[in-house]
Write a structure and sequence with these properties.
Helix 7 runs antiparallel to helix 10, helix 17 runs antiparallel to helix 22 and helix 21 packs antiparallel against helix 23. About 75% of the residues lie in helices and about 0% in strands. It has about 600 residues and is mainly alpha-helical. GO terms for molecular function: lactate transmembrane transporter activity; solute:proton symporter activity. This is L-lactate permease. Belongs to the lactate permease family.
């Protein structure tokens, strides 16, 4: 069977997700079983994978789903515990004291705090921390989830203390004999990755506020978000400049963590002093809750009353989040992590195959969330019935999320473990990537980021995407006469951007705030920032590799200039559109 035909067949599970989940807006609990069935049928009857291996991949997927549900439960439990204790009320009041403007709040929490948590823990943890915090501040659940997914881009390559680079890229290119020192290669690629992320990440806070006002504002106007473009760019640079410096000086472990932390230290005091902040008469907020679109809200309902006023001090309210950050850092950067990892449940060689599964239960962020929830119970002086109610409500939400994840993750594992069948075909992701490379030829660098993004979309992990495709991207770079290191860098940034549209990350983030069944609505809103990210950086990567041969006016530089020209035009003409909105409002 030809490469093109195989590539189309390998794409079918993804097409099913695109059509039913994103296009027809089916809930993941209905769309993902279809995708799983398609992947299983392809593995069995086209790739000729033995049934025990397909079954083993499915079981492994179920175990991974359980580990995700454990994280979801812990995140929901902490949210509900803080709700019951009154801590969320205090946190909400603290952010309102900085500014009641939702655009500024989402930049500080999702972009800066989320980047710090991504650097500390990765693997979807920012959504489990930042998304419920936004809901606690009064954001619609869908607005919070979309915001949490959009920032799953720039900081992701250096998430979990550099895991996508050190483990993902490092493991992926390890078989290459021409690389004498894998660590040195990864260090060099990390600098390139940080530079690319800094370029594209400049506009991510703008996308955050623009999407917020376009989809969740009264006037459905992107322009109302762009009104704070100066503050958004300031917050972006406050994170990405330290991030870029750290990546080039220290390597891939700390850019997101230090960038997010320094960004918070710079931006919050500046915001309190009114630097680049909206004027009092320009404060933007959501409409009253009774006027929200029903699709915006989930099963997790947070009280907004003043019955908690003064109950919990500011330092005690924030202590659980500080404790989470500290425990994540300790577990990831000290020998304590090795001890926690030793508590492992392992199922080797499932059904006699090479597929094994394990769960480091104490190392999981879910365990840390639960520990902090218990500490909060005592720290906030809660009553037993309040804490019991938090556990009960969290269990209900976790069960609702399980119906989607029990098919989503097994589909991913069947897809990833489809190699080694009697047909002799490569695993489905590699076949798909080879088909794109054959079709694209020398312009492939523009598409390299989309291959990385597709890997993350399917696998749910930038690390796994890098492990799958880094060797392939390196080889394509050699074959077309480009710099293989830049090709691997394009893979890494594309894999990071793919987290914005990754199905099981969206399912997990939605489940934390009870937004089960509306995953397609979320992905439709994050597709635009994903395409911006992948296309801009793919074009820049092409220009970097081919400017010496083709001159500065090549297809890559032209596409990048067009994208930036559109951005500059939209910002420059924003006041005109805002005036038109105000005029219509006055007439009405």
């Amino acid at each position: 069977m030809g490469t093109g035909t195989l590539a189309i067949l390998a794409l079918l599970p993804v097409i099913v997700v695109a059509v039913f989940l994103v296009g027809l807006k089916w809930p993941a609990s209905k769309a993902m079983p279809l995708s799983y069935i398609v992947a299983v049928l392809l593995a069995l009857f086209v790739w000729d994978v033995a049934f025990p291996k397909v079954a083993a991949a499915s079981v492994h997927g179920l175990i991974v789903a359980i580990t995700l549900l454990f994280i979801i439960f812990g995140a929901i439990l902490l949210l509900n515990t803080l709700q019951e204790s009154g801590g969320l009320h205090t946190i909400r009041r603290g952010f309102t004291d900085i500014t009641p403007d939702r655009r500024i709040q989402v930049i500080i929490i999702a972009w800066l705090f989320g980047s710090f948590i991504e650097g500390s823990a990765g693997f979807g943890t920012p959504a489990a921390v930042a998304v419920p915090l936004l809901v606690g501040l009064g954001f619609p659940a869908m607005a919070a989830v979309v915001s949490g997914m959009v920032i799953q881009s720039t900081p992701v390559s250096f998430g979990a203390v550099g895991t996508p680079m050190i483990v993902g890229v490092g493991t992926g290119i390890e078989p290459l004999t021409q690389i004498a020192n894998v660590s040195d290669f990864v260090f060099g690629v990390a600098g390139k990755v940080a530079l690319l992320h800094t370029i594209a990440g400049l506009l991510i806070p703008l996308f955050l506020v623009g999407i917020l006002t376009r989809f969740f504002g009264k006037n459905k106007s992107f322009s109302e978000g762009l009104k704070v473009w100066k503050f958004a760019l300031f917050a972006s640079l406050a994170m990405t400049i330290p991030y870029l410096i750290v990546a080039n000086l220290l390597g891939p472990e700390f850019p997101s963590m230090i960038g997010g932390l320094l960004g918070l230290a710079i931006v919050i005091p500046a915001a309190k002093k009114g630097f680049l902040m909206p004027k009092e008469n320009e404060i933007w907020d959501f409409e009253a809750k009774d006027r929200w679109d029903p699709t915006w809200t989930g099963r997790v309902e947070l009280k907004q009353s003043d019955i908690y006023a003064g109950k919990i001090s500011m330092w005690r309210a924030w202590a659980p989040y500080v404790l989470i950050a500290v425990l994540l850092l300790i577990s990831r950067l000290t020998v304590a992590g090795d001890w926690l990892k030793s508590a492992k449940i392992t199922i080797p060689n499932i059904f006699g195959t090479e597929i094994s599964s394990s769960w480091e239960i104490l190392f999981s962020p879910g365990f840390i969330f639960i520990v902090v929830a218990v500490v909060t119970y005592y720290m906030h002086g809660m009553k037993g019935r309040e804490f019991a109610r938090a556990w009960k409500d969290s269990g209900k939400t976790m069960v609702a999320a399980g119906s989607a994840l029990v098919f989503t993750v097994p589909m991913v594992q069947v897809f990833l473990n489809s190699g080694g069948g009697a047909s002799g075909y490569e695993k489905m992701p590699l076949v798909l990537a080879e088909g794109v490379a054959d079709l694209a030829g020398s312009v492939y660098p523009i598409f390299a980021t989309f291959i990385g993004g597709l890997g993350a979309f399917v696998a749910g992990s930038n690390t796994v995407s890098n492990m799958m495709f880094s060797l392939f991207q390196f080889g394509v770079g050699e074959n077309i006469g480009g710099d293989p290191a830049w090709m691997v860098a394009l893979q890494a940034v594309g894999g990071a951007a793919g987290n914005m549209i990754c199905v099981h990350n969206v399912v997990a983030a939605s489940a934390v705030v009870g937004l089960v069944g509306k995953e397609g609505h979320v992905i439709r809103k994050t597709l635009v920032p994903f395409f911006y990210y992948a296309l801009l950086l793919g074009s820049i990567g092409y220009s970097i590799m081919w400017t010496a041969d083709k001159g500065i006016f090549n297809i890559g530089s032209i596409i990048a200039v067009i994208i930036w020209a559109i951005v500059i035009y939209v910002i420059a003409t924003n006041n005109k559109r805002l005036n038109a909105i105000e005029h219509k409002r006055n007439i009405a």
